[in-house]
Amino acid sequence: MNNFVFQNTTKLILGRGEIAKLAGLLPKDKRILVTFGGGSVKRNGVYDQVVAALEGFDYLEFWGIEPNPKVETLRKAVEVCKNENIGFLLAVGGGSTLDGTKLIAAAALIEEDAWELVLNPKLQRGSLPFASVMTLPATGSEMNRGCVISNLATGEKFAFYNTFPVFSILDPTTTFTLPRYQRACGLADTFIHVIEQYLTCVDESPLMDRWAEGVLQTVVEIAPKVLSDENDYDTMANFMLSATMGLNGFVAMGVTQDWSTHRIGHEITALCGTTHGQTLVMVLPGVMNELREQKGAKIVQYGERVWGITEGTTEERIDRTIAATEEFFRSLGLATRLSELGIGEDVVEEIVRRFRERGTRLGEQLNIDYAATDRILRQRI
After folding, report:
1. Which CATH number fits domain 180-378: 1.20.58.100, 3.20.20.70, 1.20.1090.10, 1.10.760.10?
2. What is the pLDDT of residues 101-126, one digit of tens each?
3. Which of 67, 115, 96, 155 shows the shortest CA–CA distance to 354?
């Protein structure tokens, strides 16, 4: 097991009706900026619950944070924070709303532009405190430091790290109105978050392996019900908690991580605007195949423990495990090939060009360079 330091300071509040607790959690002596996405919270009743809980508070609303939040939009919110003496931020919606809020909270305290902060985190000078009411299980942003920000002008998408949310409220009933496609992408996103932290080295931590495999098995088990119209409360509660546990640091303690699928996927999203979870499922099987020798022992373990693949040669088991993974994504109704979404060689060539110019090297052994990326993506067309 590798050395590690673990600390997660977010207070997690999960359950039916828990949004009402905002009144006792938010600071009464600070002006609050409440950030929203495109308006789904008005259709599912979340907005009304938040407004009721905020009665008596001094707050403003900021609307319009997009999926794959754009720095162009976030700059406007930064100006609101600076001009209106904002002292606390509350993100209400999905992971993109919270991701954008994390950058707003940090950029509000510097003179430089928000995108400069993304490119150079050393510019950070602290952060306004922030919290969330999470309505879309996927990113785990409600209990981690990370966010991913896009730049429309440059066609780029990069990660940024702030501090943790002070608290996050998750009410499973808020997921009942989610479209099937968003649920599917959330399941895929959760699954691959865990894979990035798990599918690396064997024998580093049996405890972390079992914990990660437990999340993966749970996602596979609940997926059919999550995608159905039943809106079973306990199923959606487990969906929300799986997404949170998949990326709050609990399965990563002392183990080697990968994240190449995400880094490649971010480039596709930046260029093509594809949904994050959908993008990842088109990349992961290619990464597994490219690194089948390096990751072979862990792929075999994963195949046995998650998919029950126990027979055949090592190569056959690897093939079957990659196929089972892709078939799971297809069972969610997601495309697993770039060509299914009209993404062709021109996009691959642009990503390879970017990685070549940046000198990008990805993966746990930093051996996924531009040439390996080219091979990974061409087999996914």
Report:
1. 1.20.1090.10
2. 999 999 999 999 999 999 999 999 99
3. 155
Count of beta carbons in the 10 Å neighbourhood of residue 204: 15
Structure tokens at 74: 């976030």
Q: What is the DSSP letter of 33?
A: E
Residue 189 CA, distance from chain mean position: 6
Q: Are 337 and 381 in contact (CB under 8 A)?
A: yes
Neighbours of 293 (CB within 10 A): 11
Instruction: Provide the whole-model pTM.
Output: 0.94
Tokens of 7: 């600390």
Using CA atoms, how far residue 30 sits from 27, 36, 48, 81, 88, in Å, is 6, 19, 21, 12, 6
For the chain, how many residues are written?
A: 381
Rounded to the nearest angstrom, the gap between the alpha carbon of residue 176 and the centroid of all alpha carbons in its chain is 20
pLDDT at position 38, please? 86
For domain 11-174, the CATH architecture is: 3-Layer(aba) Sandwich (3.40)
CATH 1.20.1090.10 maps onto the chain at 180-378
Q: Give tens-digit pLDDT for 273-319.
A: 999 999 999 999 999 999 999 999 999 999 999 999 999 999 999 99
Write out residues in the chain with pLDDT < 50, as ranges.
none
pLDDT of residue 244: 97
Closest CA to 53 of 30, 18, 21, 94: 21
Q: Phi and psi for 210 in degrees, rounded to 5? A: -65, -35
Q: Give the per-residue pLDDT at 40.
A: 87
